[in-house]
Amino acid sequence: MFLSAMVYFREQRAKRACLHAHLTTGRNPDRYGAGKAKGDCGSLFAKGRKLKMNIEKQIEFDRIKAIWMDLAVTDQAKKEIQETGFFLSEMELRKQLKDTTDGRDLMESLGQPPLQNVSEIREIFTIAEKGGCLTPYQLEQVEKALAAVRRLQDYLSRGRAFGNSLAYYDENLHRAEELGEEIGRQIRGQQVDDYASKELSQLRSQIARCEEQMKQKAEQTLRSNKAYMADSFCTLRNGRICVPVKKEYRSRQPGSTIDRSATGNTLFIEPAGVAKYYDELQLLKSGEENEVYRILYTLTAMAADAADLMNENMRMIEKLDFIFSKGKLSMELGAAEPSVNTERRIVLRDARHPLMEKERCVPLQFELGNGTNGIVITGPNTGGKTVAIKTVALNCLMAQCGLHVACKEADICMNSAYLCDIGDGQNLAENLSTFSAHIRNVLEVLSEVDQDSLVIMDELGSGTDPAEGMGIAVAILEELRKSKALFLVTTHYPEIKEYADRTEDIVNARMTFDKDTLMPTYQMVIGEAGESCAFHIADRLGMPNEMLRTAIRAAYGEEAVASYHFGKEETAVRRQNGRKISRVKKAKGNAGLSEKYRRG
Questions:
Q1: pTM score of the predicted model
Q2: In this predicted model, what pLDDT tens digit does every residue of 109-130 receive, in sequence order?
Q3: Parallel, antiparallel, or unpaired for β 374-378 and 486-490?
Q4: DSSP letter at 372?
Q5: Residues 34-38: contacts with CB within 8 Å, 24+ apart?
Q6: Nearest to 375 by CA among 387, 383, 384, 367
Q7: Taking a C-beta distance cutoff of 8 angstroms, is the pair 453, 416 a contact?
Q8: What pLDDT digit, counting tens, does each position of 78-103 carry?
Q9: Contact residues for 309 (Cβ-Cβ < 8 A; gap 6+)
């Protein structure tokens, strides 16, 4: 029986080799189901430009990816998400955005798609194609995968009623019903079923009958020789049914000694009447094993024949998983589909940072382009300047990666590069100060920037002498202006506000601030310069008026002191009594004599 199974399996291998020969010679491969799936998930981002990891981290796109990956099911889709870059092809980008919208619409109409991870299934089919024998567990996994394919195909076909283009992917899924039915009929509970074949059913019936006869014979021996027995029941030792015989009665009980107890007082003997059934049982079990292997090899051969179809199914599942994960992210963030343009125009309505709570986030109204290439944002500390520029850059990047954006409406231009300098960048290991790190990042940005880039910079010119920092900030802005790139920068320098006022293509913007409550309102007003409000904040937090006069005088001169309205009465700095240092008392003048003359 085992040999016949091997012959059958070789025939199946020969059949597959013949199929391969047909395919390589150009005979219609699709009729055999060997055609490669269109839109292979592995090539989705072949045309995308990879982002630098530090840029992803600075604008927090890495955190968006982490949320996105958790929404994917298959390992391949998670890998694609991790390696996601932005698209440079307008046609491909529009297709990706449409896929995201279709995925979300389909889930809103039909619920979550029935997807499952197919990594293990791919390994199983690799074993089958290499000529290995699949185990019952592996065959059951194949059956489950086929059931998942059927469910997904039914799910997609129901989407046709909504005119959703994703629904037509069901044509690229293959049910392989014959393979699923055969596995379901012959494999149950991770074992080959008794009724998988007529011969196996007969063999297992004979095995059960033989084992029952052995048990009855042993119990009969036990009852008829109670005086010789150490116990009142049979036992199984080394795969043989034995009776427990007292050591001193060994000669009274015919049979083979199989084992003995730890003390040696009890011998486990296989009665002679049972031994003759044992040989018959081993022969039956050998036949059962051969029949089981024949069935497993037959099913393995069927699985190998369906490997091309299943590989296409798995590629399609991974591709759909990637698409639906984008739809899930859109639903998770409450996002919307953006419009895309190549005219260097960015318009965001009710935009918010995707990682901030929607209820607490103040919507951002933003517009850049149409003759304005740069915006200089000013305002108080904690006023939301950094969050504002991150919101713009992150939403633009998400849109160019084929994702929906956290806006009510958005019209976003495609960019050739996303460049930024955010954070102090201080690195003790590389002996970099805050200013050195800024300059290094800025020079790298300026070396890569072009007219299709989007640049964001935070606290421009900070970390050094204010006068020199201001001069460097103006020089950086001038280079960005010459490059024709779109850019957003934040600053506190008043001279930069004046530079933006008098320079073409650059405008000021401010983040609003409530001086009465000392709370930022996180609203951006484009076209107006803001102030840092440092004196108002210090005044409200209790800085004495005399200190404020000194500060205002140093910053703006004596006239500014006279015009400033103090919000409280005259006070002085209150110094609290702290802990004191305990010092050693100095020795007096006669200390030397006391050392010289001591009591004897």
A1: 0.76
A2: 999 999 999 889 999 999 999 9
A3: parallel
A4: B
A5: 34/308, 35/312, 36/312, 37/172, 37/312, 37/315, 37/316, 37/319, 38/172
A6: 367
A7: yes
A8: 999 999 999 999 999 999 999 999 99
A9: 33, 174, 176
